[in-house]
């Protein structure tokens, strides 16, 4: 069974640009969550999608947005990039077949903003 | 952003030694998860705990869900070089179980010397 796939693996952008990251969950998983990881702030929850609906949202500015498609694939968009947006962006999926289901993470997209 | 208190921050041990780390929160959780992350990769789930007092093993790893539901512990016995990495605890606080949002610990960086 294939794991969570994130593309691209690495990305370099400049301030003010926008970026779109992609995540393909494990087959059969309907829930996709996004996390930002930085050395200073650790792993922080961005948002969660289930059946194409945003189920929960973290404390990030509106420049961070996402969506989920009918095949459960998800995209995350960051507009007007800032230097502080440089981070490893991780996507996680879960089947949500039971309460408190565990998450399975992809390898992440390393975003560098210059 | 919200994080769990995880200690120790780092450990330098000799191969064959046992390792203990813990995670504490000011609020209760209904699920505790332990992950390991290698450089440039996403976290990989090690153990999931769903009930207060639960003790679960996965090979040389043993984790416990604290009775107060505000803490969790991870032990690694007879460490080997491939145990090197960063270990994260994560808790799910939503008592409605209606989200996959996790709160992550600050991480414990483990180094194992032969």
Quick description:
The complex is a heterodimer of chains A (114) and B (114). Chain A has 114 residues and is mostly beta strands.
What do you see in this structure?
The complex is a heterodimer of chains A (114) and B (114). Chain A has no helices and 11 strands. Chain A has strands spanning 5-7, 10-13, 19-24, 31-38, 42-50, 53-57, 64-68, 74-78, 87-94, 104-105, 109-113. Chain A is globular. Chain A starts with a strand and ends with a strand. Chain B is mainly β. Chain B contains no helices and 11 strands. Chain B has strands at 5-7, 10-14, 19-24, 31-37, 44-49, 55-58, 61-65, 71-76, 85-92, 103-104, 108-113. In chain B, strands 2, 4, 5, 9, 10 and 11 form a 6-stranded mixed sheet that branches. A 5-stranded antiparallel sheet of chain B has the order 1-3-8-7-6, with no helix packed on it. In chain B, a hairpin with a 5-residue loop joins β7 (61-65) and β8. The chains are: A mainly beta (114), B mainly beta (114). Chain A binds chain B through residues 4, 31, 33, 35, 41-45, 48, 50, 55-56, 58-59, 90, 92, 94, 96, 99-108, 110, and chain B through 1, 3, 30-31, 33, 35, 40-45, 48, 50, 88, 90, 92, 94, 97-107.
């Amino acid at each position: 069974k294939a794991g969570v796939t994130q593309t691209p693996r690495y990305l370099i952008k400049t301030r003010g640009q926008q970026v779109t990251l992609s995540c393909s969950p494990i087959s059969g998983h309907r829930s996709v969550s996004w996390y930002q990881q930085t050395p200073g702030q650790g792993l922080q929850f961005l948002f969660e999608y289930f059946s194409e609906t945003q189920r929960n949202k973290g404390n990030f500015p509106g420049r961070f947005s996402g969506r989920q498609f009918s095949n459960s694939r998800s995209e995350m968009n960051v507009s007007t990039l800032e230097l502080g947006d440089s981070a490893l962006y991780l996507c996680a999926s879960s089947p949500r077949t039971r309460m408190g289901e565990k998450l399975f993470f992809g390898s992440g997209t390393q975003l560098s903003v210059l | 952003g919200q994080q769990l208190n995880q200690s120790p921050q780092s450990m330098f041990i000799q191969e064959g030694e046992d390792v203990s780390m813990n995670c504490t929160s000011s609020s209760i959780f209904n699920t505790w998860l332990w992950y390991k992350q290698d450089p440039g990769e996403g976290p990989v789930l090690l153990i999931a705990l769903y009930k207060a007092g639960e003790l679960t093993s996965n090979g040389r790893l043993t984790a416990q869900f604290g009775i107060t539901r505000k803490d969790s512990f991870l032990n690694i016995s007879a460490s080997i070089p491939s145990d090197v990495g960063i270990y994260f605890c994560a808790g799910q606080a939503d008592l409605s179980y209606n989200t996959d949002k996790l709160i992550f610990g600050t991480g414990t960086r483990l180094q194992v010397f032969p």
